[in-house]
Amino acid sequence: MITTKRRAGRYGLLASSTLIAGLMAGAAMAQDAGLITDQPDVSDNTIKTIIIKAEGSKAAATAPTKASVDATQPQSIISRPYIDLVVPETGDFTNVALIAPSVSGTQGNGAGYGDAKLVLRGFQDAEYNVTYDGIAYGDTNDPSHHSNTFFPNSTIGALVVDRGPGAAGDLGQANFGGAIHMFSNKVSDNFGFTQKVSLGSFNSWQVLSVLQTGRIKSLHGLKLFVNLQERSTDGALSYFRLKSDNQEIKAELPISDNWNMTFLFTHNMNFSYSPDNDGATLAQVAMYGKDFSMSNDPSSPTYYKYNRILKHTNFGYVRLNGDLGNGWTLENTAYTYFYSNKTLSALDTTGGTAPGTYGYAAGVDPLTSTAKPTIANGNPTALSGYDKFNYYDVHGDILRVNKDMGFGILKMGGLVETSDTLRHRYDYAINQNDPYDTSTPDYREKPCVTIETAASATPVKCNPDNRSVQYDERSWWTQYQLFADFVWTPTDRLTITPGLKSVDFERNNAGKSKSKPSLTYAATPETATFKKTLQFLTVNYKLEKNWSVYGQYATGFLIPPLKALYVNDLANSDPKPQTSTNYQLGTVYNGSRISVDADIYQIDFKNKFTCNNNYCTNQGGVQYKGAEGQIAYAFDFGLTAFLNGSVNSAKDNDSGLTIGQAPKSTLGFGGIYRKGPLKLALTYKNVGEQWAEDGEEAEYKIKAYDTTNLVISYDFGRITTKLGVDNLFDNRAITKIDINGAPYDQYHFQAPQNVMLTVAAKF
């Protein structure tokens, strides 16, 4: 019998403070201790300057989102004070960015408790860059992102949503639909230690320990920032449990008066019971409710022990920057990041594949028989599963050289990056007596027929090594990007920035003889090379010191996904890169009490990718159009009221219909109150109607939905308490539909109301 009641966990608070205590002692011996009195911020000089200019007025400084008067494209700057107060303690970058206009997405298991995807103006994840301290990262099959596997909320000192491809010097794999830039916390000159403990709904807890050593004179002024986080939850969805930990260390060392070195390294581990493809069918929702994900029934593929994921990631860099003299500056960043995903999953948790559909034993010799496994010759109670592995290791270097010419600044540089990727999926028969036993192959991949759906086709004998292989791939890339921007300031009011970027991207695989043996692949490696020169031009004119207008013309570029090299008919699979041409106009005003910015945009998107098992090709394009705005007003009594929103259109060039997963609008508003030790925040976000897939099919229309969050915080001095309520009114609307064909479509809903209490102590 299936039950969906969550088992109460007994997880103790882990001892993450042990290392911190040792480092505290060493730092305290090196200097006198002092209480941290300023809010966490960022060390990066570029974003620090942007934030200082953007927060030049009281309204802008206290608003959740704002733009700089120096902006050359639409942007939303979100600084640490907002993140620290309003964003859920367990959240990730998606929770931070959601307050911005034209941004949408949800996490059905609770903030930070699952993988979430953001939509930006209708552009999907993998169609825009996500960066950390200026380094773009993402999967290597396509540049998609796993929101809770690298950088939790506590590691983000500021975040900027750029709604545009940026300048030529914005580097990454997806200079296409925009960017989400995260920046690490600053390393303070002063010693301090903060301990946070959070307890909340769904049997959730989190422990966060933060150390700032301050400058250590005996080590040439070295200063360290250490951030250790551990957490556990049973999740909002049934049996969707997560345990994770994250460690980040950042060090800054002054080498001389003009040269500095920065080192950062972070590691993250997530273990969860979760389906590889989550979401509940309407039948499951009708029977078990909107919180259904998995069950405790070993006879069902939804049994939670059959569905588990272990992820390890790390990310690090060493950065050297300094003054070369005569107006020249240099910055060089060597970086690496790593991702490992080991997934064990039932084949189908929707009920669309009955037990025994794929047999694996019962009298059939898997190596000699030409019979396709069926219920008749298989085990009628068999459950099929698979072992999925995804591993990649990326190394790169970014060089930036600037020359101040008096009338402008020439910015030049480049990126070189390599990757190595291993991916496989092996089919196996689930052992109901031992959910962790993957030793029995499931031979549903064994018949190597040319047309898998043809019942009369004669199966071809398979290599024994391939009989349970869905795919087994190795691939790598090498990419080069060279850029030049010239920031020309002919007058104090006018800034004109032309730029060029050359992209050279080579992708390889290591041969396909073992990849999807039911398809007819060549055994030799395949190589695809993509080259493009991108053009940029921006203008910013200051009508007043605190009021500017700007315009942008920019081109974007996105290479085809890795699956374009893993198709049956490679000769006819030659997709071209997707391209975009962006036109944007906007204005920014930061007054003493009011902060306003608004923009309009049009984006011409060409060479849209489409793939099936036989080939990949380009098919048409999309026109993106819209208007966006942000406004905040600061009252004398401590309240800042804000309002932002967007009207968005993303329509297919051929049909004229809205593409899938592209909301027509967003709306955000609320207020933040700060008076003495008391802080209050009430925020509201509405995401407009959309369709789950292209074509505006009525049955896949998703209505508008909204979320209201409330936060109350009180500072007692060294002790601060915070109570947060997410989804205050417990709205449970549909947010996404994964289309598998009715009745097996999978529905995603807003997470239920959840509460978290946080106590923080500063020393």
Helix content: under 10%
CATH-scheme architecture? Beta Barrel
Low-pLDDT segments: 4-40, 359-378, 446-464, 512-523
Number of helices, counting only DSSP H or I runs of 4 residues or more: 6
Describe the structure in your own words:
- This protein is mostly beta strands.
- The protein has a single domain (17-762), classed as TonB-dependent receptor, beta-barrel domain (Maltoporin, Chain A, Beta Barrel), CATH 2.40.170.
- The chain is 6% helix and 46% strand.
- It contains six helices and 35 strands.
- It has a 22-stranded antiparallel barrel. A five-stranded mixed β-sheet has the order 1-6-7-4-5. Strands 2-3 form a two-stranded antiparallel ribbon.
- Strand 33 (734-738) and strand 34 form a beta hairpin.
- The longest helix is centred in the N-terminal third of the chain and has 14 residues, at 17-30.
Keywords:
five-stranded mixed beta sheet; mainly beta; 763 residues; Maltoporin, Chain A; 22-stranded antiparallel beta barrel
Detail the topology: elements first, then pairings:
Layout: H1 17-30, H2 45-54, H3 58-62, E1 75-79, H4 80-86, H5 93-97, E2 103-104, E3 119-120, E4 129-132, E5 135-136, E6 158-162, E7 179-183, E8 192-200, E9 204-212, E10 223-233, E11 242-254, E12 259-273, H6 282-288, E13 308-325, E14 328-346, E15 384-404, E16 408-429, E17 469-488, E18 494-509, E19 527-544, E20 547-558, E21 578-590, E22 594-606, E23 609-611, E24 616-618, E25 621-634, E26 639-652, E27 665-675, E28 678-687, E29 690-691, E30 701-702, E31 705-715, E32 719-726, E33 734-738, E34 746-749, E35 754-762
Family: Belongs to the TonB-dependent receptor family.
Keywords: Cell outer membrane, Membrane, Signal, TonB box, Transmembrane, Transmembrane beta strand, Transport
Subcellular location: Cell outer membrane
